[in-house]
């Protein structure tokens, strides 16, 4: 049962404490120590308050995690670089600006309904803009700037990945959620705006959401969790490959040839993410052109 502070504990909450400061502090803790190092008690100690003061603002840890990933997703919306600008991904753990967290993250029924509509591909009139035959979108279309929609989508997703690399824990929280937060919905709306503005049909845009999956938010959700707490040594990898060599030669070949040390998951490194994203976007653009002939 969710814990809530009573009136007496509410009056003990320091005036400086707010939902925003709690969420920002929780993000700092998770960035520094990972989710394993985040608890309501440790967060209270970090803030110098009684734990019940936190429960006054956020009813339980699940609500806190939802608020945290909503704040992270909101970072994607701000300062999106124009197409053609530098988008090098910083190393995980680099310094970041603490987001302004002011959005209610208990998703209301209307927004859950909107998310279901997106998943069903029924946002036909969400963006009413025109694109030329090459899929180039006018700067006024609500996208990232002038240029091919493919470049705009790549830039938007690259920005999402940069955000996830600043907060590696956020990918795991997003994977575990059943419903999108408001900031995630706004990000999906921007993805759809780019595609619809580039001449993609509603049907193709719907397929694209399923095809891209978690990559829309900047990370790959692999078939298996192949990112152990302690990475295997070269000797251990070689021994495993040798054990597989006779019965599963192709798996043994793959295990010996590729690395599994991605920043946001086993194989989720920059090369793999960029390769998959380019392949998917190129395929979507070919399908867009095929639909128009």
Summarize the model shown.
The chain is built from 13 helices and two strands; from the N terminus they run ααααααββααααααα. The chain has helices at 7-12, 19-33, 40-47, 51-57, 61-77, 109-120, 149-166, 169-176, 182-197, 202-212, 234-244, 249-257, 270-292; strands at residues 136-137, 147-148.
Would you write up a description of this structure?
- The protein is mainly α and 293 residues long.
- It is built from 13 helices and two strands.
- The longest helix is centred in the C-terminal third of the chain and has 23 residues, at 270-292.
- It is flat.
- The N and C termini lie far apart (58 Å).
- The model is unreliable at 1-13 and 82-143 (pLDDT under 50).
Layout of helices and strands, plus pairs?
Layout (H helix, E strand, L loop, with lengths): L6 H6 L6 H15 L6 H8 L3 H7 L3 H17 L31 H12 L15 E2 L9 E2 H18 L2 H8 L5 H16 L4 H11 L21 H11 L4 H9 L12 H23 L1
